[in-house]
Prior knowledge:
The complex is a heterodimer of chains A (470) and B (115).
Chain A: H1 11-22, H2 25-38, H3 42-66, H4 74-81, H5 84-117, H6 126-140, H7 143-169, H8 188-199, H9 218-247, H10 250-255, H11 259-304, H12 322-339, H13 344-374, H14 389-403, H15 409-438, H16 448-453, H17 457-465
Helix pairs in contact in A: 1-7, 1-9, 1-11, 2-8, 2-11, 3-8, 3-9, 3-13, 3-14, 4-5, 4-13, 5-6, 5-11, 5-12, 5-13, 5-15, 6-7, 6-11, 6-12, 7-9, 7-11, 11-12, 13-14, 13-15
Chain B: E1 4-11, H1 16-25, E2 32-38, E3 59-69, H2 73-84, E4 93-98
Antiparallel strand pairs in B: 1-3, 1-4, 2-3
Helix pairs in contact in B: 1-2
Amino acid sequence: MANDTDKPLGLRNVVSVSMGLIVSMSCLVSLGQGAGEAGLMFIPAMAIALVLNLCSAACMAELNSLMPNATGGLVQYTLAGLGPLPTLVTMVGGYLVCNILCGGVEAAIFGSVMAETLPIPIPAALWPTLVSAVIAICALMGVDVFAKLQDFVSYLLLISMIVIGLIGAFRLGTGQIVVQEAAVATDPASVIAAVGTASWLFVDAEYAIPISKDMRNAKRNIPFGMALSLCLIFVMDSIVVLGFSNYVPWADLSESATPHLLYGEDLLGSFGKIWMCVVSALAFTGSQNSTVNGLSQITDGMTKVNMMPHFFAKKNRHGAPAVAILFVTISICVIAFFSGDSSDAISFLILVVTVLWLVSYIFADIDVLVLRRRFPKAPRAFKVPGGPLIPVIGILGTVFMIANISSDPDEALAIWLLSALCFAVLGIYSWFWIKKKMHMAPCKPVPIPEVLAMENDLYYTIRHRRGIWR
Amino acid sequence: MSDVSKIDIITGMEKFDGLRRTLSKAHVRGMTVMQVLGCGVEKGTKEYEIDENYEMELLPKTMISVVVETKRVPELVDLIEKELYTGHIGDGKIFVSDLAQVVRVRTGDEGTDAI
């Protein structure tokens, strides 16, 4: 086992990984459209969403302190808290499929934005493919190179956004200053809708957890880093919303498909548009880098507990899960190629699997309560204060997000029904996989020492040789 | 109950460095370290194995002994637990016992004055 001081990652890496995934291109769009619909009221809405997501992040941090060296994070937590069936359903449907689909669509949008903005005769699909290839190479070179790329991209993105936000907030831009009402809508229904939109600006902080085994003083850095990254994003987004208020009419923001590019253009002309295009590229690179690394680690973690075929565990000489990295990268590129930036079907499908993903958050909050009851005296380096209050708030917050998955009631109903169908199909698949491949009781929680023993490659090897695991 | 207690910690060798640092930060002054052989209730069975060992297999471990004021024991045990905890089998055990007397030979100090 590596000495703690020899580990390559520290607090700044937790912040950059969390922030990198959260601040994706779709978040920039949600930020502009949310601000367009609520005006400056979007800032308090973001504050409420921040608190809800801090609750979820704190629960994840407590689970991490209970199982500090678990490769897959949520995979192992749910396995110990609720058993193999809920784990397999939410991790395959909620995490793998959802994030690969989101990554693919994000890549397609990025390609379109680059092709529209930059006067270079390169096909739109080539941009995300090039970036994905560079990211895959960095990920294959090990966690150290991944972290350096992530640091560079995330902090440059943070600084760029704050600077362009401050230029707008202090009315230092070259464009026409807009005089408009501060808040577009202040009725409770609009504020609730704004909180629903704002919630998407803070999800995914838990992607820092899979790197905890490579982190110095992970017991302190994981919870502190996740909270810090969420707070930094709140500050950054608030400054940008203030900038929006001075240069872009709220109606234009809410109607634009790329409100961040509109802001850049209205603030500083074509230079501002190119600046925001670079910001988009940074956001895409950061989120793709976190996705590829995080998903490959989660896939590796699922392989260790025999929930994925064993060849995904194959590592290269840098210790990176090479097959998993290539699988995630190629899947994202294929989705990007086939989706295009305006595919309604893919967007709808993303919302469906997002419900499964959000259910995995609810399971994490339930895991906290279950494991507290089962192991009340286990020494947790980080324990969420306030007894069951914060996990319950986390659950309610996530239920709220599922309830507000779409502003169109008919679409929302269709999403919930299709999600239930996905749950049923995945449940049947998972049931057979667990019975045939794992020979375990589907809904019986696995003891923590056994879950952690699965981290050792010999756990699989011995059971595979004796025919217990197939 | 006496004013002075002894905390014996048996854990894996790889955890010693972190524990030494933690105890130093907690102003524990002095410790005795021994390399020992032993096993717990699993009889030395590795965590990934299926069948439990029939006979006890002794594994190399480190035993750290510190003598502290009794009133500091709960705080220090909590600190040690958090430092050693990984959730894996083999994290270790902590034994706390009363000490009837402690004497510093050089000065003749006794009890808490001697630690």
